[in-house]
Amino acid sequence: MMQHNNIDAKTLKDMMERGERATVVDVRKQEAHAEGSIPGSVNFDAYDALHEGDERAMEGLKLPEGSRVVTVCNRGHSSAVAAEQLRRQGYEAYCLEGGLEAWKAL
Question: Average pLDDT of 62-70?
Answer without folding.
Answer: 88
